[in-house]
Every structure is written in structure tokens, then in C-alpha cells.
Amino acid sequence: MSNRLSSIADLRAWARRRDEIALSRTRVVVFVLVLAACLLVIGLGATLSASSASGIIQESDRLAVFKRQAQWVAVGVCAMVIMAMVPYNWYRRIAPYALGLSFLGLLVTLMVGVRRGGANRWLEFGDLTVQVSEFSKLAVIVFLAAVLARRRDRLDEASQWMGPMVFAVGGTCALIVWQPDLGTAIIVAGAAGVMMIAAGVPFRYIAGIGATGLAVIGYATYSLQYRRQRFLCFLDPLSDPSDACFQMIQSLIALGSGHWLGVGLGASRSRWSYLPNPYTDFIFTIIGEETGFIGATALLVALAGLSLVGVWVAYRTSDMFARLLASGITAWLGVQSLVNVGGAVGAIPVTGLALPLVSVGGSAMLVAMAGVGILVNVARNAPHVPDPVQERRKR
Questions:
Q1: pLDDT-derived band of residue 239, with 50, 70 and 90 as boundaries?
Q2: Which of 56, 58, 80, 371 could form a disulfide with 329 if both were Cys (CB 3.0 to 4.6 A apart)?
């Protein structure tokens, strides 16, 4: 009789634990989706305002850029749903092929890509323009997650994982820097570094690779004149106010004019050809100008919230591959957000990177939404680590 009661109690405890896990998963998924939706709405609103002036000047349609971006958001939502529904272990199987296609796309871009502003970063297919380096971010993350997860018991032996990592990360970064696009290469390398930490790679290897990466970034910064100028403008924005430092100065002026509550939605003055790239690289500036410190802070809270939820997803799964996927995607979105906002406020040199889920850009939007979909996938389906608080309460 006591054995029967014990088995019933165990069954009830199992059912209760299952319900707790299901509720926890649902809450995390809701947080991710709500935060992503908030960022999309903010981005579309800012795009409507920031692009209206250039739309009138260049295309005689103030809604031209907004319409294209809304279409990409719709495509991105479809991509997010697909990536959330496919079993996440499937990504492990396609990782080598994704990386191979990424390499091929980057090589083709260098050979026959469209050159704009001195850089070969885009492929054109009729009216469709694709930036392959955006897809490379996700390809490298998936490949590195598969490699580190498969060799998690041999991470003390550099020979077991160093070769594939250098090939994937180093090769991708080299091709991207060659375009040239140092900012995107830094994001790829940064995400890889966070994934190494999450995997438990010994610190001596991380320190060595990090020091090498910083040396390469320093050399790349001073190898081209425009990069040197951007760095000098970061140190002294008034050194060349009418040319190299024009973007940064105009961004700071626009942000300063926003004060606490902003100049009003749709009332930005900097979008009228004062601020270059107002709906891409400097969309945070437009948001800060129109909604002030309060609106800019709300955007930063949403971005930080998405990063924190991503960290929680990675922390709560016991599957190493899923943990590294979540860690890499969270690092990519979080670090790129910091770099974009940092450039807009003058905290770091301007890099020309999009603000994830907010800035205009079809490829960037599509890949960012796909990354959010994978994050949702891991939150819904990856094995759950027992909550230490709940375990202590049971005792």
C-alpha cells in the first residue's frame, strides 16, 4: 500500500513539474515575442518619420522606404515562425552547408557585387538587393555551436576545435573585412567569443584568441584612411566637422535637441539632409530627437530586455548545442545594438551597423527575425535545467 501511495505521489510530482516547465517556457516565449514586437513597432514608426524626407526628395513618395521595410518585416515574421517550428537539432545537421553557402556568397559578392560608397557588400537580383554578410552571422553561429557542442568533452585540447573555429570565424571575418566591412566582422568575432565562454573553453585560449583579434582590429582600423578618420573623430569630433566628423556631430546635435520629451513624432529636423543615413545607421538618433531621453531610454530597455531573456534561455537549457545557439544569437543582437547606439551617441567610433529589428534593411531584418525564431525554438523545445530555487523549496 505504501509503495502504491509513493508511486502516485511521484506521478503527481512529475505532472506538477511538467506543468511548471510548460508555464515557464510559455512565459519566456511571450517575453521574447513581446519585446521583438515592440522593437519592430518602434522601428517602423521611426522609419516612417526618418525616411519621409528622402522619400520625397529621391522617389517622390514619402512612404516609399516605409513600404519596403514593412514588406521585409512581414517576410521576417514568416522566417521567424519557420525557424521557431523546425526542430532545433536540424540546424546542427545543416551547419556545414550553411557555412559553405555563406563562404560562396561572400566570394561572389567580392567578385560581382554592387559597389556602393567604396564597398562591395551587396548582390543584386533584379529589384532585390541582398547583403550576404548578414546571413554569414547566423551561419557562423550555427556552425560554431555544432562544433563546440560535439567536442565539449575535449575543449582542453585546442587541436580538437581550433582548426574548425579559425576556418569558420577567421575565414568569414577575412572575407567581410575585404569588402570592406570591419563592423560586421567585429560582430561575428564577438559572438564567437561569447560562445567560447559559454562552452567552457579554457581562459588561456580565449585570452590568446582575443589578443590576436584586437591586434587585427587595430591593424585593420589604421589600414584604410576612412577608418582612421572615424577613429580620430571619435577622439575629437571637432577635428574635421565639415567632412569626416560630420555624421557624429549632426547625430549629437539631433540627440541634444530632443531634451527629455523630444521635438514630437514626425517633427525631426535632422532627417532633412542634415543627418546622413537617418533610417539605417542613425535611426536611434531620430528616435532620440523625436521622443527625447524618455523614448530613447525605453528603446534601450527593450533591447536590454531581449538580451537578458536570451541569456535566461541559454542558462536554463541543459543541451549544449541549444545553449550555444542561444548564447551566440543573444551576443550578436546585443553587441550589435551596443555598437550602433554607441556610434550614434559618440561613445565609440561610427561603424555603419544597423540597429537590430529597428533599422531599415531587408537582409538585416530577415536574418534578425530568423535569429529571434531560433531563440523562441530553444525556449520552447530544449531540455530544461531544474530551477535551483524550486529545488531548494522542495527540500
A1: confident
A2: 371
- What stretch of H or E contains 94? helix 89-112
How far is it between the farthest Cα atoms of the chain?
Answer: 88
With H, G, I as helix, E, B as strand and everything else as coil, classify residue 144.
Answer: helix
Using CA atoms, how far residue 204 sits from 157, 210, 303, in Å, is 12, 10, 32
Burial class (CB in 10 A: 0-12, 13-18, 19+), 317: buried
Give the pLDDT confidence score for residue 102 in this predicted structure.
96
157, 306 Cβ separation under 8 angstroms: no
Helical packing angle, 362-381 and 64-85, nearest 10°:
30
The model's pTM is 0.91
Q: CA geometry: angle at 248 spanning 244 and 251, to 5°?
A: 145
* Torsion on CA atoms 316, 322, 324, 326, rounded to nearest 10: -70
Place of cell 549629437: 252
Other Cβ atoms less than 10 A from the Cβ of 59: the count is 12
Rounded Cα distance between 379 and 84, Å, is: 9
- Grid coordinates given for 120: 562591395
Q: Which residues of 324-334 are buried (b: 16+ CB within 10 A; e: fewer)?
A: bbbbbbbbbbb
Kindly state the DSSP code that residue 317 receives in the 8-state scheme: B
Contact between 215 and 208 (Cβ < 8 Å)? no
Task: Identify which of 356, 255, 307 has the alpha carbon closest to the alpha carbon of residue 31.
Answer: 307
Give the separation between CA 258 and CA 253, rounded to whole angstroms. Answer: 9
Please state, in angstroms and rounded to a whole number, the distance separating the CA atoms of residues 370 and 349: 28
Q: Tell me the pLDDT tens digit for each residue of 359-377.
A: 999 999 999 999 999 999 9
Residue identified by cell 566637422 is 241
DSSP 57: I
pLDDT, mean of residues 43-60: 82
Question: Residue for cell digits 567580392?
Answer: 110
